[in-house]
Amino acid sequence: MKHKIRLGALMFTLPNENTPDPMTTVSSLRTRFNPSLLGVPLEQPRLQWTLKSEEATSRQVGYQIRYRRAHRAEWTIAQPIASTVSIAIEAPGGQLKAREVREYAVRIATDAGWTPWSEPFIVEGGLDPDSLTAQVIGIPTEVEGPAASLRREFSLDFEPMRARLYVSALGLVHPRLNGHAASDTYLTPGWTEYRERVLVDTYDVTKLLKRGENAISLLVGDGWYRGRMGFAGRTEIYGSQSGAIAQLEIEGANGEALTLITDQTWHGGFGAIQSASIYDGTMIDLRKDTGDPSLPGFNETEWAPVCVIDCDRRIFEPRPVPGVHEIATFPMSIVSGDVSDATLPVILDAQQNVSGWVRLKVSGQPGARITVRHAEILEADGSLHTASLRTAKATDTYILGESGTVELEPILTFHGFRYAEVTGPVSIAEATAVAISTHLQRRGTLTTSHQTLNRFHENVVWSQVDNFVSVPTDCPQRDERLGWTGDAQAFAATANTLFHTEAFWMSWLRDLELDQPEDGSVASVVPNIISGDASMGNNEINDMGRAGWADAATIVPWATYISTGSPLVLISQLDSMRRWVDHLRTRADAHTLLPEEPFQYGDWLDPDAPAAQPWNAKTDPLFVANSFYVHSARILAETEALVGDQRKAQEYADLADRVAFETWKRWRHEAHETQTGAAMCLEFRIVPDDERAELADSLATNVRAEHGRIATGFLGTPLILFALSHANKWEEAYMMLLRRDPPSWLYQVDRGATTVWERWDAIKADGSIHAGDMEGDGNGMISFNHYAYGAMIDWVYRNVAGMEPIEAGYARTRIGPRPSSAVTRASASIETHFGMLSINWHLVDDSLEVSLDVPFGVTAQLDLPLTEDSQLTINGAAASTSSTTLRHGHYTITASRVSVIHVDAAAS
Questions:
Q1: Please, what's the b/e burial string for 846-883 (b: 16 or more CB within 10 A of its CB; e: otherwise)?
Q2: Structural domains of the chain ordered from first start
Q3: How confident is the model at residue 3 (pLDDT cuts 50, 70, 90)?
Q4: What mean pLDDT do residues 700-717 have?
Q5: What are phi and psi of 434, to 5 degrees?
Q6: What's the pLDDT at 533?
Q7: Which one of 184, 476, 712, 732 has the lowest number of neighbouring Cβ atoms within 10 Å?
Q8: Which of 376, 638, 758, 831 is the catalytic position?
Q9: CA distances (Å), origin 782, targets 469, 473, 779, 814
Q10: What's the pLDDT at 432?
Q11: How far apart (Å, rounded) are the C-alpha atoms in residues 198 and 189?
């Protein structure tokens, strides 16, 4: 039987359902959620798959999905669908129900026939508010004081065959069962807009339970919920009492069941943790350790019944993104001191700046006090540089309870550090730096012939890892660690290239929308805890709706769509995007431009701005604000055309054109004078077409005159290299990319950086450390772990490696490496939703040799740097040099007499 189904304006004929295609297989099937997640949100699953085929001309023309409740014999088989789409497919079966486990499989129709059914993919739903019958419980505690432990013993009269622990907290919770951690996550449930939503983790704890006596404990900390957060030092931002909620559901082989919930039958008390603070660290007195409360038989003599904390359980929802995990460890080496000499402090070096803590193995006498202080860099005299911490103590203190070797580490805090100072009358047997982050899968890899560029790429990777601890933070070390929207939008494209971040951004963007007030403005940080506290230069500022920060509402969803090809983020954020652009319209004057306002962040940390006034950049902040207004309106117009209202699409496109016209008319002269001004006008399509070449020439002249010196801040930096390369100013782009003198990207590497700096001159040419001056703020502002200036790495993947999406999700990809005299080899890969796209190229004299792998569903468009004398071969056969497209498969490509970009040796 054949099915003929109309899809849009195209007519597809599906092959006979009994005709096999033995050359093509489904290599993977999954939903939009990380496969490691249990208890996902209760939505209708969206499926995506990748294919492999030995037939070069094969293409998907349709699909068929089957599903069943897990492990049931009978499949429900949906009708075949004619479609070439393989991303964000709405799966049959409707919305997941609480606890439901559903299996899916798919088979694909190609021109030749049908593939075999894929291996099943299992998705499991979390709890809905009606199913979460547990209560939030706790005991009275001091803010950031001793951490409470809550416990309950219970008996099982059957062998557990399946058990799920659903757990969350107003604060942080670390659950244990029968002497073992319930999972390998930390800082659960993470930071969200707690007033509206708190995430619930689901753990498979079957193997931790046994017939007979069992016990469960919940260690509770204040974390972001009640602890000190923000530069105003406020506590109890979301509530006055921390507590935990847990629901343990156990099933036996013969239908037996037991559900244990947090309620008034639990008891609570205190143990060794005497204080725990995100900013300040923890104090653990092992003399007060009375044992593991997760073990049956624990002595509760000094413990008391818990109290129920009043809370609307509708705020609890299943986790959509992986939690925080240990993602790497680094053995620490000795910089100074003697680990066996108790009279001197020991300085330890992890060789890498990380977010996390130090895990120590020490031996000493009972009552010995050990102090671990953390810092990103060292002073000239070898001591810790702590000025950049501001008021954050970043110190962990331990008091030993007995003699012998003991392992020490905190679990209710984290620090940003490379170095640690350990003091105390103990000998250190082992010291390890533990790096933590939201556990996202790596997506992009890159290496080139330029070792310093390679190291900077790794610095960017680590700055993302270190600053993706639950939310996209500005830095991980000082009394801030906030989800600054400006940093996020600047870095979003690179973040999406390096890691699978779709679910991460969608979760954070939901909080962004929840923090949008009625007027549609967008906060400077998300979750928003600084409104009313923000000031610059001794003046209070309006931190809502600031250009380049609030535009995260449009830029982050669009960057995520372009990188992944999934429209889900646009669909979910469309209303938020509309509200933001409409908010700008209400602020604009009769000439459509935004008016002068008391404060804008502007091109933040422009290297030529006064050190103490990072907002006072060369480029007029009102020019910046109107340029980003144009950009957001254009993004919204394209989003409406894709997933919204076609009439609104034209309305917003017309709005963007009007604002662009007025912006160019007013700031045309300034656009020719600053790198950021030129880059914005070129990349946001503000400059008229007949003046683009002139503006690009001005930008290139500026870069040449400055010998590649970067002169942009947070908003201009993501744009500058694209503005140059899109105008074919390749020599200037490489001159800037590979510059070694300050300010530049590679200067940081030459100064020993292992992450990206907040200021271009965080360490000055004479080796001194920037004071971090800030007018009106005696604490200053300096960090050695900010990802914003690493935003150019997306450009490196697209242009140095040569893989650029020209249709969302890399469905159509420009293969356009640009070899230079300084970079003669590059190898890169990106795991797209279609599969692994990879390239390996090297320059031999003036011939370019390329090894290219294109996954099924991707069309590669060659854009090699050919000359009139070039000859092109693909897999040994001569090919056209005018226009060549390639479908899935492996290709060996050779191009002779290519154009090679000259880079001044002194600059690189």
A1: eebebebbbbbbbebbbbbbbeeebebebeeeebebee
A2: 4-124 (2.60.40.10), 137-319 (2.60.120.260), 325-438 (2.60.120.260), 444-801 (1.50.10.10), 805-895 (2.60.420.10)
A3: very low
A4: 97
A5: -100, 120
A6: 84
A7: 184
A8: 758
A9: 20, 15, 9, 39
A10: 98
A11: 7
Sign (positive or negative) of CA dihedral 276, 282, 288, 291: positive
- Is residue 12 predicted with pLDDT exceeding 80? no
SS3 242: coil
Distances, alpha carbon 589 to alpha carbons 28, 521, 585, 599, 780, in Å? 53, 17, 8, 17, 36
CA distances 514 to 320, 371, 474, 752, Å, are: 16, 40, 20, 41
- The single-letter DSSP state of residue 347 is E
Is the CB of residue 488 less than 8 Å from the CB of residue 236? no
pLDDT at position 882 is: 80
Give dist(CA 165, CA 839) in Å, integer. 44
CA dihedral 736, 740, 744, 749 (to 10 degrees): 130
From CA 271, how far away is CA 292, in angstroms rounded? 9
Question: Residue 118's pLDDT is what?
Answer: 97
Cβ–Cβ under 8 Å, residues 797 and 815: no
Q: Which of 226, 418, 259, 392 is nearest to 330 (CA)?
A: 418
pLDDT per position as a tens digit, 138-196:
999 999 999 999 999 999 999 999 999 999 999 999 999 999 999 999 999 999 999 99
Q: Which of 480, 638, 662, 683 is catalytic?
A: 480
DSSP 863-900: -----TT--EEETTEEE-SS--EE-SEEEEEEESS---
Distance CA 91, CA 375 (A): 49
Question: Rounded to whole angstroms, how far apart are CA atoms 482 and 514?
Answer: 16
pLDDT (0 to 100) of residue 175 = 98
Provide CB contacts within 8 A for 27, sequence distance 6+.
49, 50, 51, 52, 835
Condensed to tens digits (0 to 9), the pLDDT of residues 81-122 reads: 999 999 999 999 999 999 999 999 999 999 999 999 999 999
Residue 496 CB burial class (10 angstroms; 0-12, 13-18, ≥19): buried
- Is pLDDT at 907 greater than 70 in this prediction? no
User: Which amino acid is it at 180?
Assistant: H
Name which of 334-343, 447-456, 709-718 the model is least confident about: 334-343
CA-to-CA distance for 835 and 8, rounded, in angstroms? 26
Which residue is associated with the tokens 């593939």? 115
Q: Report pLDDT for 6.
A: 32
Percent of the chain whose pLDDT exceeds 90: 92
Residue reference for tokens 């509708």: 314
Q: What b/e sequence results for 542-555 when a residue is b if at least 16 CB atoms lie within 10 Å of its CB, and e otherwise?
A: ebbbbbbbbbbbbb
Mean pLDDT of 499-505: 97
| CA 423 – CA 381 distance, rounded (Å) | 17
Mean pLDDT of all residues belonging to the chain: 95
Mean pLDDT of 758-775: 93
CA angle 678, 683, 687 (to 5 degrees): 60
Q: Give the distance, in angstroms, between the CA of residue 253 and the centroid of all CA atoms in the same chain.
A: 41
Residue 7 has pLDDT above 50, yes or no: no
Tell me how far apart the alpha carbons of residues 188 and 300 are, in angstroms, rounded to a whole number.
Answer: 25
Name residues whose C-beta falls within 8 Å of residue 569's C-beta, 6 or more positions apart in sequence.
502, 505, 506, 509, 557, 560, 561
Place of tokens 């016990």: 215
Answer whether 236's CB lies under 8 Å from 224's CB: no
Of the candidates 260, 288, 294, 256, the residue with the CA atom closest to the CA atom of residue 275 = 288
- Locate 376 and state its tokens: 């990103």
What is the rounded distance in angstroms from the CA atom of residue 192 to the CA atom of residue 199? 8
Query: Tokens at residue 741, please?
Result: 């003198």
Query: Where on the phi/psi map is residue 859: left (φ > 0), alpha (ψ -120 to 50), or beta?
Result: beta
230 has pLDDT over 50? yes
Is the separation of the CB atoms in 557 and 578 below 8 Å? no
